[in-house]
Amino acid sequence: xxxxxxxxxxxxxxxxxxxxxxxxxxxxxxxxxxxxxxxxxxxxxxxxxxxxxxxxxxxxxxxxxxxxxxxxxxxxxxxxxxxxxxxxxxxxxxxxxxxxxxxxxxxxxxxxxxxxxxxxxxxxxxxxxxxxxxxxxxxxxxxxxxxxxxxxxxxxxxxxxxxxxxxxxxxxxxxxxxxxxxxxxxxxxxxxxxxxxxxxxxxxxxxxxxxxxxxxxxxxxxxxxxxxxxxxxxxxxxxxxxxxxxxxxxx
Length: 251
Known about the structure:
With about 250 residues, this protein is an alpha+beta fold. It contains 8 helices and 12 strands. The chain has helices at about 25-35, 40-45, 80-85, 95-105, 145, 155-170, 210-235, 240-245; strands at about 10-15, 20-25, 50-55, 55-60, 70-75, 115-120, 130-135, 140, 175, 185-190, 195-200, 205. The model has no long low-confidence stretch (mean pLDDT about 90).
């Protein structure tokens, strides 16, 4: 089965109709999961799994051999044609691209959960299904929760400060995230204050570092999301916060 190229430090593990590209240190975990079906099916059967709601249900589990805490996500289409295309992708799917993007972002100093493995299942002669497994970020909360009316204002200010730092890092890397929204930014305790992590990086495209079109696109997309949550869901997000993240994102 065709999957993406295997990056340095990763190995290929196969079983039946599934092929997995896994980090070398979790190859044993990949084999154990594939014994239960696909990566996603194995996670869903895990009695200790914690469910996470997004475009679909994801599962936070401890890998069976190494104990590494991960999140297992089944790739699904979004947008207008999602009811038709559902979870079917043309090979090699977007999973190999997500791994490549994550490795590149991390190398350039952008926080994103490392991809520890991904799996591709042959669903049809022409189509594939894919699962992506990323490291779980301990005690993470998405930016939307910090905009809740009951959230402490000081915590919300710290969350926006970390988010501005994340967007600056994306811009410096020339990384345009076409779905940069407040649900795709995860905040977690860092060495000092909060750290912001960007999710769903298969929607990232690269341009020149500090490209103005990248900066403007990232800011516009995130502002649109924040304003929508404010206007439609009553989230706390005033114009001073908008000003703080607009333009060249001053600290």
